[in-house]
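Listing S7. Sequence submitted for prediction.
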Amino acid sequence: MQRSNHLIASVADAALEASIVGSFSRLGFEVRSVSDRWEDPPRLDGKTVLVTGASSGIGRAVAIGLGRRGAHVISTARDIGRLNLSAKQVVAAGGAATVVPADLVEPSQVEALVERIGATCAGVDAVVHNAGALFPGYRQAPDGTELTVATHVLAPFRLTRQMSTLMNTKRRVLVTVSSGGMYTERFDLSRLEMTRSDYRGAVAYARAKRAQVVLASQWQLRLGPGVHSYSTHPGWVRTAGLDAGLPGMARLGPLLRSPEQGADTIVWLVGEALTRPQAPTPGFWHDRRLRGVYYRPGTRRSPAQERSDGEALWSWCEDRTVFV
């Protein structure tokens, strides 16, 4: 019977995944959580997790979900008022909370964030890279980098490099919140940073989210033993960011997931990776299952190309990242 149930769940999952709409929508979450008989994520008592973009949406739901499992959550974002509200909700859920406001595209603020964490915490077990936004119009970060790339690629790179000395050495977990939108774009470093003349917000976002997946695999390779690096997409989630950046998607209404549903796999990955003897396989995850990173044939890369892509992106990030 157990084998039969597993087969039925796998068939249902494959059908949802092939449909895309079924997989990314609320329907996919609800069917999979029942058919796969999801259990609550493991307890995280004594664990410390840094969550970026924790002031609203999926990030806030991740912070609260980790707090509910007993974690100490360090929340960072730009808005101190909303961060404080998020922290209160983490504590109400049963966790401990520390708030450190920062704009992660500003190198000096990343430096200050890391120094503050180092001065107040014995160590950090996991980092959830969630901060992000879709910018409809062309904008630049203070260093002149197009803001989508600065936010989603260079900021996590800078933060991870600086946080690596503060992370506990036995098992270090990184979770990058990407997007299913990355499936629409092939990784091409020469096309990653769009210019004012060719900028399209949704395309820039998808390319940056694809780059996040490439970068997550590099952290797995380069940051030493004990590192478990994951990327994940939360499905179509109703947030203020979606309403502002993709109003057409927002009209899907009841098909959209709640922030808590979008946060589920992120919280689950952190819990499983930090507490289980055998951590989940590094890679790209959605609804608690390891997924492929290609849908469209035109986006597919060979293993050799993937290695070359990762090396090129790492070098590019090193060249473009300013450490103060």
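Caption to Listing S7: primary sequence and predicted structure tokens for the chain studied. Residues 184 and 296 are 7 Å apart (CA to CA). The radius of gyration is 19 Å.
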